[in-house]
TrEMBL record:
This is Peptidylprolyl isomerase. SUPFAM superfamilies: Triger factor/SurA peptide-binding domain-like. Coiled coil: none annotated. Keywords: Isomerase, Membrane, Transmembrane, Transmembrane helix. Pfam families: SurA_N_2. GO terms for molecular function: isomerase activity. The keyword Ion transport does not apply. It comes from Brachyspira innocens. PANTHER family: PEPTIDYL-PROLYL CIS-TRANS ISOMERASE HP_0175-RELATED, PEPTIDYLPROLYL ISOMERASE. The keyword Transmembrane applies. The chain crosses the membrane at residues 21-38.
Length: 488
């Protein structure tokens, strides 16, 4: 039988603060040399949150996802918004999209931009400048001395990729100009507000909650059996690389001390024996590679760094599972969904579109359908402008799909007091009714002073740049092979 055990590391504080660096373009980077396995709510996370074109997106502090998550989280906290589970799910989705965009931008940047080693070193050193502008050489040298080579290489890679994506984004999008006529058009477009009500069925949630037929799981396992190779492992998780190196040397001389050392020195004393687990249950892809790909028959592996910890690993056996029940069922279901999510989601949206159409036909009071099966009714707290972003109801409930381009395109193409047909959005299907529209007074624009007009031009230019970037992301993400894990 397969083991369903999974390690639960203790929450760990960062060993350095936020690194901020201003380069060719504004670049703000989180330099935290530990991986986020546990987020601010303390819930467990998988090592990767997904991939794009085969490149894994790690759930780590210095990864594109980790940096985006913390930046978005800090932004909403600065606004005084209480971040509940629903809000965190929204932030996770935004951070994942931004991470995908960053990786795609990196692909463009690598062909055209070079980031020198000196630039990276200066970026790292800038972290050790105090509030008075004084550089602390001793603190920097201590950081370098106490960091392993693997840590330093990882930080360098994260810094380089962040700078690459920020620089190419600046070149692609930030040179956009806006003239007087454009300003009038953008002013009208961005200051026009609309009020709606919406019926919605969350097809993505239905797909995630649906039972997967045993035959489908068994076939997926059979077709992809080599992906589920398993290792019977035990590991000792430590915070110090030096301690891990010394322990490895001790165990190399006397492996019988492994269990005693795990109980006395390990952070995971209650579950250091993992049993047979797949690579998906391991802390990182690099970790899995060292066990399955790079292992030259060694049972005791040299310390592996992953997720901010050092692991001394004992490999007891490696096997290919014979049947699908030998694999952790949560892992198997997650991998099945990852591989088939686009097909399953489209099929579910088509199915639920018929359900919503039948329910909403000839119904004037849309709110009356709230709670009818999967149907939910939403009305924004106030009228909103084009591409305003995520919308809330009066009680703070997030309106699903309300941050997507598709949502805004449909809303702003409706005529007042008309009801849309059933429309497919990113994650579900909807019927939208346009209640009212508020248009800006264009005469006001001509009476504004130069400073105010300049400020509005900058704001409108920023909005246009943002829209162009969203269009670029939509186009390139649609062409990319994107997989997102269900981390909840």
């Amino acid at each position: 039988m397969s083991s369903s055990k999974k390690f639960v590391p203790k929450k760990k504080s960062p060993v350095v603060k936020t690194l901020q660096w201003l380069g060719v373009s504004a670049v703000s980077i989180l330099l935290i040399v530990y991986f986020l396995v546990v987020d601010t709510r303390g819930s467990q996370r998988t090592p990767t949150i997904g991939s794009v074109n085969g490149t894994p997106i790690y759930y780590t502090s210095t990864s594109p996802y980790g940096r985006a998550f913390k930046q978005i989280e800090a932004y909403y906290q600065s606004l005084g918004i209480q971040i509940n589970n629903e809000m965190y799910k929204y932030i996770e989705d935004l951070a994942f999209r931004r991470a995908v965009s960053t990786i795609l931008l990196n692909d463009v940047a690598r062909k055209n931009i070079n980031v020198s080693d000196n630039f990276i070193v200066d970026a790292m050193k800038s972290e050790f400048i105090d509030t008075n502008g004084v550089y602390n050489e001793m603190a920097y040298e201590s950081f370098i001395k106490n960091s392993t080579q693997a840590e330093k290489l990882r930080i360098e890679k994260d810094l380089r990729e962040s700078i690459l994506s920020q620089t190419v984004a600046s070149e692609l999008f930030s040179s956009i100009k806006i003239n007087a006529l454009d300003m009038q058009r953008e002013y009208k477009k961005n200051l026009t507000k609309r009020d709606i009500e919406m019926l919605y069925i969350d097809a993505a949630a239905i797909v995630q909650s649906n039972e997967i037929a045993v035959n489908d799981l068994e076939k997926y396992f059979t077709d992809n059996k080599t992906n589920f190779v398993q290792a019977d492992v035990s590991w000792i998780m430590l915070e110090s690389g030096g301690v891990a190196d010394n322990l490895y040397k001790t165990l190399k001389d006397d492996i019988t001390l492994f269990e005693k050392s795990a109980l006395e020195k390990g952070l995971n004393t209650n579950n250091y024996k993992l049993g047979y687990i797949t690579k998906m249950q391991m802390p990182s892809d690099d970790f899995a590679n060292k066990i399955f790909s790079d292992n030259k028959g060694e049972k005791l592996l040299q310390p592996i760094y992953a997720n901010g910890y050092y692991y001394v690993v004992l490999v007891n056996d490696i096997r290919m599972p014979e049947k699908y029940t030998d694999v952790n069922q949560d892992v198997l279901k997650r991998e099945y969904l990852n591989a088939n999510i686009n097909t399953l989601l489209e099929a579910e949206k088509t199915k639920q579109a018929e359900v919503l159409k039948a329910a909403a036909t000839n119904v004037n009071n849309l709110q009356r359908l709230n709670g009818n099966g999967y149907i939910r009714y939403y009305k924004p707290a106030s009228p909103f402008s084009y591409n305003q972003g995520r919308l809330n109801t009066a009680d703070g409930t997030i309106i699903p799909d309300s941050s997507t381009e598709s949502f805004y395109n449909h809303v702003f193409s409706l005529q007042t007091n008309t009801v849309s047909d059933v429309i497919k959005l990113d994650n579900g299907v909807a019927v939208i009714k346009l209640i009212s529209e508020e248009k800006p007074n264009m005469a006001t624009l001509a009476t504004l002073n130069a400073a105010t007009r300049s400020r509005i031009r900058r704001e409108l230019s920023s909005q246009r740049i943002n829209n162009i970037q969203i269009e670029w992301e939509n186009e390139h993400i649609a062409k990319a092979r994107v997989k997102k894990h269900n981390i909840r």
